[in-house]
Structures are given as C-alpha cells and as structure tokens.
Amino acid sequence: MTKDIAVRTATAANNPAPRLQVWRELEAHFEKIKDLHLRQLFADDPKRGERLSAEALGLHLDYSKNRITDETLSLLTKLAHVSGLQERIDAMFRGEKINLTEKRAVLHTALRAPRNFSVLVDGEDVVPKVHAVLDRMGAFATRVRTGEWKGHTGKRIRNVINVGIGGSDLGPVMAYEALKHYSDRGMTFRFVSNIDSTDLAEAVRELDPAETMFVISSKTFTTLETMTNARSARAWLLAGLGGDEKSVAKHFVAVSTNASEVSKFGIDTANMFEFWDWVGGRYSMSSAIGLSTMVAIGPDNFQAMLSGLHQMDEHFRTTPFEHNLPVLMGLLALWYNDFFGAQTVAVLPYEQYLKRFPAYLQQLTMESNGKHVTVDGKRVAQPTGPIYWGEPGTNGQHSFYQLIHQGTRLVPCDFIAFCQPLNPIGRHHDMLFANVCAQTEALAFGKTLKELKAEDTPEWLAPHRVFEGNRPSNTILAERLTPETLGKLVALYEQSVFTQGAIWNIDSFDQWGVELGKVLAQAIIPELESKADPKLSHDSSTNNLISYYRKSKETV
Ligand code: F6P
What we know:
- With 556 residues, the protein is α/β, with parallel strands linked by helices.
- The protein has helices spanning 3-13, 16-33, 38-44, 48-51, 70-82, 85-94, 108-111, 127-146, 170-178, 197-204, 224-240, 248-251, 259-265, 291-297, 299-318, 325-338, 357-369, 401-406, 428-445, 449-454, 462-465, 483-504, 515-529, 540-554; strands at residues 53-56, 59-62, 120-121, 124-125, 159-163, 188-192, 212-217, 252-256, 272-274, 344-350, 387-389, 413-418, 473-478.
- Helix content is 49%, strand content 10%.
- The protein is globular, with a radius of gyration of 25 Å.
- The N and C termini lie far apart (57 Å).
- 6-O-phosphono-beta-D-fructofuranose binds next to loops.
C-alpha cells in the first residue's frame, strides 16, 4: 500500500467528527463523576467487584477499583469504535503497512502464528519463513543445550552472552529472568547492552572464553552500542583463545535482518538467525531475537510462550471491546492520562521473576506512544503515552508507595499476581498475596479522619494518617507464572499500547525520537578523541562539558 492510501485508510477510520463528539461526551461525563469516590461506587453496587472483572485465557482482570461507572465504560468503548480501533486491528493483522512513516507492515503477530496460518506481506505468505527460522533456532538451541555444539577447543558451551540493546536486549533479558525457573541451571546467561565498558567487563568476568558463546542481537546490525560491544567481545574471545580467527565461527552467532552487515562483521551467515523489517525492535522478543531465551528455557517452553502470545493476539482480534482485556486496559490507561491528567502508570508485579518486566514495558509503551503528532503529521490534541514504571512488590511498598497512597499525584497502578508460587516456602506466598489485596484495598478505600478519631488518634497526628483513598488500580491474576502465561501478559500490554495509539491516531511503530541524539553523539566522539584541541561549535554548555572531559582525560 502506498503512503497516501495508508494515510487515507487511517484517517477515514478516524473521521474526526464522531470522535470529537464522543470526546466531548467523555469530557462532560468526567466533570460529572470526577469526584465520585470508590467508597461510594462500591457501596452503591455490592456486586461491583464481580461485575467489573473480566476473565480470558486464564487471566483474571479485576478493574472494579477504577474511577469509572458503567457510563464511563460505554463511552470509552464508543470512543474506541468511532476511532476505528477494529479497522486498525484488522489492518495490522492483514499485514497492511500501518507503520506509515517507515512504510512497513507491523506483524509481530505473525511471529507467533501457528504453522497452518497464513499472513501475507506484499503478497507473500510469511508464516512458512517464520517457522523455518523457528525450526533452525530449535535445532541450534538443542545442540547447545545438549553439548553437541562444541567451542573452538572442543569444550561444550556453558555460558551464553546476549549482546544487544533496546528491543534486542530488554525482551530477551526480561523473558530470561521471568522464566529462569524453567531454564537450564547448568548454564550461565548474561546480557550486555550498555556501551559503558563496565557492562561487558562484568559480563565476561570469570568466564572461560572456551566455554562462552556470544549471541549478537541487532535488527540493523549497525547500532553503535551493540557493534562496539560485539567487537570488544570478539577481542576478548580471541585474546583468550590464542588469537585464532577461526574460533569466531564457534563462539559467535548473529540475530539480525541485515545479512550483509553480519558477514562484514565476520560472522558466517550460516550462523545467522533471520527476522524481518516488519518486526519492530520492541516487538521482537518472539522473533529470532529470542534465541538466548530459547537456549535458556528450551524450544518447547519457547513454543509455549509463543502460544500464549498468539492466544492473546487472537483474543484481541476477535473479542468484543467490552470483554477484550487489552482494549479494557488501554482504555483505562487513556482515561486517566487524558481526563484525570495522570502522567504515569505504575506496574507492580508481585512475582520476583518479573523484576525486569517494568523495564521491558518502558520501551514497549514509551517508544511506541511517546509521540507528539498524529499519523498525518498534525499536533496531537491530547497528551499521549503515559510514563510506565514500577518495581516488584513487596519491595516497592517500602519505598515509593508512600507517594501513591498519600502524595498529591494520581498514579493508576497495575498489580500483577499469581495464585501459586514457583518456589513455595512456608507461608511466604500467602503473605505476598495478602499484600496485593491489602494494597489495592488501601488505595481504593483509604482511611478517613472519622475512622482515625474513633481509634483515638491524637488530633494533631490525624491529618498525617489520613488516606484519602480513591486511588485506582487494576489487578491481573493468573494461576502461576509459566512460559505460556508470560506470553499472554506480554501480548496483553503490546495490544493495550496498540489500543491507546489507535485512539490517539499516532504511529505507535516508529521511533524517530531516538535519532537526533545518535547523530549528535557521532559528531562528538571525534571531538573527545582528537589529539589536537578541536574547534567546538556547540552551545556554551555542551562546549564546556566536552572541554571539562578532555581536561580530565589529559590527567590520566
Ligand atoms: O534506538 C532505538 C532502537 O532503534 C530500538 O527501537 C531498538 O530496539 C534498538 O534501537 C536496537 O536496535 P537494533 O536491534 O537495530 O540494534
């Protein structure tokens, strides 16, 4: 599809008149209910907790502790309809080039489609290609895991280091940490992303090069951080293996869309696992970018994760908005962002294995929806992209929850919890789960001055101990954290991001905002490294910083 046709499709689906009309209705409705307290909403409807819950694919979403009424939900779903959300969903799954500014299809959903599916990109069915790569990955992962793949000196590979950044790091490291319980504990997995040499130095510390494999993961294979780390990793390996260039083939594999750059780097393309330009970096953990995850947890568990992703994709594509988990979550995030003026969403997993989940979500949500213009280049009319952040519970309770409970800002929260622990010890899990319930209850209902007085709290102290409540939260429950459940959770957030972006009518799949800094850094590197004093022509602050650094370097 050409850009013009694509723009027309997108704007036709987002005919501004009905959208504006519903937006006005939502504004009027917001004025009516903005001060309504969750205490009141629950008192008025004793079955609210059951009624405002949705269940799908083994995930239970309790959204009753949100500052919404039935009318809010009906207006929000109406907004989704008039914004052309269903048309956009269909266009994405059909392989249309909905990433308008990069003229690309957006088909991470094809990466987890079963073999018997068919997804056309420019008239070609991509599902057979996807499965061919998955099969190669499976065979490779098995060879490494069983020790059949030997290093240059004949030793088996025991350490795998993924070198990548952004989507080529955050997905793999999050999935590895999340699914560590299912991983091969006889092997060590590490992740290097930062161009700060400490990252690589610490990752290779105490490892035997003869037992170490590097997975160089980069969609473009040109990213400064990854290529710099990959070259230094190569030097480390060669230094440890007597400088024999032939060793690279046994210790380096690549994951990329760019075969020519892979071979220029010196990696045999026979050791390259391919993906395609219709996979965005932050949506790539289900592509070959997941190679290190697959080596860690094995092909069957990786397949189970893909199945979870696919199930949620299908739920998103086919379920009426009122029961559609990603749509509901997307609409609620938009409700707080655009009407209550909340600037952030806290994601609070009560599962230690999900410790990197909030960091992963930061790229997914903010690189996708941190946009200031619509698909047709006009300034957006509402704030977009809330800031996602978080930490696992209960740690967060002893640090930043104070602000969420008693601060002056509204911070909508997503609590994620599991009914069964992966490492049951004594009463830990009951205590953990009690904290999930307690926190959402305290946030919603708080503690009034009257209640404090009834407890004989001294008058001077009482205001400090008041919890106003009315702080909204979602609670997402599942039975236990499995590869399949992780897949469902990831797709839940991916498609919630899609929902929000579709309503804002922005391109959730480009990332031009990361470019300027990259270009400027390329100009500054020689100014830091040149022997002769460079002629600096930046602003006075930047010039000063560069000079300060150069002076400090001279003293070393
Ligand atoms: O700079 C941002 C970005 O392009 C991300 O979107 C991407 O995930 C990351 O860099 C890494 O890119 P690559 O996989 O091409 O090295």
